[in-house]
Amino acid sequence: MSDLVAVIIPAGGSGERLGAKIPKALVQLGGKTLVEHAVANMAPVANQIIVAAPAGYEAQFQDLLGSEVLVITGGLTRTFSVKKALAHVEKENEFILVHDAARALASTALALRVIDSLRAGERAVIPGIAVSDTIKRVDDDNYVTKTLTRSKLRAVQTPQGFTRKLLIKAHTSPDDVTDDAGLVEDRGVDVKVIVGEERAMKITTMHDLAIAERMVIPNITNEMRVGIGTDAHAFSENPARSLWLGGLFWPSEIGVDGHSDGDVAAHAICDALFAAAALGDLGSNFGTSDPKYAGASGAQLLAETLQRVAAAGYAINNVSVQIVGNRPKIAARRAEAIFALSQSLGGAPVSVSATTTDGLGFTGQGLGLSAIATALLLRNAG
Ligand code: CTP
Ligand code: MG
User: Does 54 contact ligand 1 (Cβ within 6 A)?
Assistant: First the structure.
């Protein structure tokens, strides 16, 4: 059969600009990793899917994506990741789409429009959208050398579609490029720009991730439910007890006593989520006597809570937690804590604040830590 499509998904980057401690493609967004979103959106049009994973993560990617997807080791640059994947494309595929895992939400419909254009006879097709900023070219000293005509500019996206033979030829070039169409242009081949979509935005920074999060909240009704939760634990007399707080391990701090890891921020958030969904509280769900949860991490409890809240028909709009105590100082690790908590909650927006209590109460006297959380849930339709 002609017209079969192979989809190459370069996912071998580390996501430096996102600043996560894990490869960007493994970051959670709405309960799934970015690479899972990308594969799910492309699968309906693909006869073959090849994902280039960061070295060392191949098995984890294969587990996530299943045996239908060919996972290979990525290269040192995106261009090399694509080159390596190209070597695995089966010859029966007339067309190849190259699609960044970082554009996780690009739709199946967009991929279909790229393919339609290839079927109509184009050899290279890329989605693009008009730019809203005026774009200027500058020299090495940052003086403007040219103002480009905005109406003639397009910000281009993926999936980019090519005939197989053309893309393989173009990739014999040694050039390192940020998109594959660039290599095709260099050969003098016409590259057609079709209308892209906002959902195909590239997730590069935490700000991008927050925008993408708004896009994946499914079918929301306007029914909102708020919940509150608090937790407190005393600092341990055992100096070897580890401190877990806000989803993070705090070396050189003494931990708190408790049935689980004692992460008061995570526990307060769980309670707020259960309260908002009217599903009881931490104790009634996880039971302090259930050995399954002895030593459970805050991350595990948050993930389990998310599952129960989602099963009851809710999506998280946002969660806010305030940590109360003299130490540790939260500010320096706030961004890290926000990321850790958010990842345990499937990528939901989280904010973290902290306060001391002017020497008053058990927190002021340095006897322990507490946290207060609120959660806002949105009810899913249907
Ligand atoms: N990519 C890849 N192999 C590399 C580098 C990048 O397959 N050696 C992939 C990324 O995983 C991503 C896509 O190319 O899906 C676009 O790259 P980018 O958004 O820049 O991702 P990262 O390189 O991971 O991010 P950063 O540049 O911030 O480190
Ligand atoms: Mg990069």
Answer: no
